[in-house]
Amino acid sequence: MNRLGPTPLDKRWIWTAFAGFILFLFIQVFPITGQLFSMNTEQVMTRSEAENKALDLAVSRFGIQQGEVVKTTVTHLSDSETTGYLSKHDLFDAYEKQWSKHTPTDVYAVEIRLESGNPSGKLLLYLNMETGDLVAWEHDGNRVVPSMDQTQGLSDVKLAAYALQYASFWGVQPDEWKWDGYSAEKGIVKFSSSGAGIGESKLWLKIAVPEGFDVLVSSFPPWQGGSVTYGVDLPEAFTSYLHDQEKWSTRLSVFGFILPQILLFLLAIIYTGTHGGHSSYRRGIFLSVLFFVLYAGLTYNMIPGLRAGTWEAGVGSADKINLIVSLVTYAAMALLTYFSAVGGDGLWKSMGRSLWPRWRESGYGNAVLRSMREGYFLAFILLGAQSFILLVLEKSLGSFSSSDATQSMYNMSIPWLLPLLAWCAGISEELQSRLFGIGLFRKWFVGGARKLLGREPSSRTAILLTTVAIIPPGLLWALGHVGYAIYPVYTRIIELVIMSFLFGWFMLRFGIITVIFAHVTLDAILMGMQMMFDGLPGDFIGGVFSLLMPGLVGIVIWWLHGVIRGKEASPNQ
User: Fold this and answer.
1) What 3-state DSSP class applies to 189?
2) In this structure, what DSSP letter does residue 406 have?
3) Within 10 A of 196 (CB to CB), how many other CB atoms are there?
4) Which end of the chain has fewer CB atoms within 10 angstroms, the N or the C?
5) pLDDT, tens digit, 9 for 90 and up, residues 292-350
């Protein structure tokens, strides 16, 4: 099916796209913008601004000299459990009023590595992302806890007062905390907030007082081995629920996605060999290489995000290890994308369908231009459907989302590169799940019906079997997204299995290029909206660019095809 002519889009599609756009605005966009306008929001510091602020604090508050600093890293960290709790119980307004300024759930963690000697190790400064204020800190060196002669004989009340006196040097208000316990082994005093909690959650404060502290002397109290940190005590039922959900997410990812993905890889290689004659082995090379190059660059851009993931998991892998593991993974995905392209194109052509025009065809540029235009309309249909599905799941299942620092804009060296991720997803997922996945199962189902009936199945049966063939790759695609911070974990499975029917239908109706553009445009719009309201300077313009990017790419391909094919047609000019 090569639709190389200028066939106009049916008005019913346009009206459906308009309805989808309205649903998207009212369900997803307006509630977010309304919350932003109702809150007293400030611009968020850039990573470089956070680094400079932390170094200034290291000098002014900790007495560290510039020459003692070996290396600094900046990582956005987010308390995903607390964010999930606030989201589930609709408590963000209370959080903004009570906690966001002095004990925010999202911080810049600036790690200042110090030269060996005294002090050694690393000093972690946690900064308010908007104001740059120091909200917590800890020194991860050879911890020197209070000596026995400092604390021996102190009552619990006096011991707590001793710790709060130390913490007051770092901005803690002693009257806002009450003693909650003491661990002599770790030398840490724990407090709970004396103020009101949010829902069933309460703030806690932990203080480690290093040896040598004297409340009567020193404007520079000792900090080597000390810490002043905070967090949130959440209801045990909620944290247990999240942990169970994460276990299910891991199981579903391994047994429902990774292992079947390996099998799909092998099948793609086999069908490339058996059906490559119906296609071309050059098919998909450019897109697969483009996928890897984009993901490699984006992975390098997202090193702080990788660091945040291992940090929160308690693994703490080095940046180089995170980068190497990611690149190897994406190289394998690029190979799967290539074999899916060749094998999928060959499968469909062996069944009498051509869903992918080729560059050498004279109308290819016009086909891409039309696919880009159709992709925008279909993306609005998809956005509306997704918004409606998520709204229904929220109301029926109590679905809620949490934060994920690994995907954060604030963990990107160059946030403007985020929209390129839309092309990685659109290229790989559509070639793997739609072109090859649906083609593979349709081949099996229709072929099985042919053998069972002893003849070609009727057109109605073929249509039914084609529809059923959308389910297995759609389920595999959905299971690949259960790692997102949306709960319960089966929320995304339900959502994306339903969405897979739309993607599959669009590919069969309009072809693979159109559905790639639709997928890319869908993601680019969501990413653009995220950029517009992330608070980083200049990102609003980046968000606008993200919305326009699929259209610009379509126009460039159309222009390049006309220029290059024109020169090939007139070699003597």
Assistant:
1) strand
2) G
3) 9
4) C
5) 999 999 988 888 888 888 776 555 556 778 788 888 999 999 999 999 999 999 999 99
Residue 399 has what DSSP assignment? -
Q: Identify the CA nearest to 191 among candidates 200, 170, 202.
A: 202
* Nearest CA among 245, 258, 256, 259 for reference residue 475: 256
Q: How many angstroms separate the CA atoms of 84 and 570, rounded?
A: 62
Residue 558, amino acid:
W
Residue 545: which residues within 8 A CB-CB, separation 6 or more?
416, 419, 528
Positions of the chain with pLDDT under 70: 1-8, 33-42, 116-120, 141-157, 181-187, 214-219, 312-318, 566-573
Write out pLDDT tens, residues 215-253: 655 567 888 888 999 999 999 999 999 999 999 999 999
Question: What's the rounded Cα separation, in Å, for the pair 371 and 18?
Answer: 18
Q: Is 232 helix (H, G, I), strand (E, B) or coil?
A: strand
- Of the candidates 493, 507, 524, the residue with the CA atom closest to the CA atom of residue 423: 524
Q: How far is residue 74 from each of residues 303, 459, 481, 512, measured CA to CA in Å?
A: 10, 59, 27, 41
Cβ(110)–Cβ(57) under 8 Å? no
Task: Write the single-letter amino acid at 120.
Answer: S
User: What's the distance, CA 204 to chain centroid?
Assistant: 29
Cβ neighbours for 476, distance < 8 A, ≥ 6 positions apart: 256, 257, 260, 261, 264, 433, 437
Cα(418)–Cα(517) distance, integer angstroms: 17
Output DSSP code: residue 255: I
Question: Taking the mean position of all CA atoms in its chain, how far away is CA 315?
Answer: 19
Amino acid at 70: V
Look at the block and give the residue holding tokens 């007051």. 168
DSSP string, 108-138: EEEEEEE-SSSS-SEEEEEEETTT--EEEEE
Closest CA to 432 of 299, 331, 343: 343
CA distances 538 to 33, 37, 545, Å, are: 18, 18, 11
For residue 372, what are the CA distances in angstroms to 4, 9, 349, 504? Answer: 13, 12, 23, 17
Name the region of 203 (left: φ>0; alpha: ψ -120 to 50; beta: rest): beta
Instruction: Answer yes or no: are the C-beta atoms of 409 and 42 closer than 8 Å.
Output: no
Tell me what pLDDT residue 313 has: 56
Question: Which tokens in the block code for residue 544?
Answer: 């606008």
Task: Give, in degrees to the nearest 5, the angle at Cα 105 between 102 and 111.
Answer: 85
Residue with the two structure tokens 């004990």? 103
Contacts of 101 (CB under 8 A, 6+ apart): 128, 131, 133
Residue 237's nearest CA partner among 205, 201, 213 is 201
User: At 561, which helix (H) or strand (E)?
Assistant: helix 539-569
Query: For the whole model, what pTM was predicted?
Result: 0.90
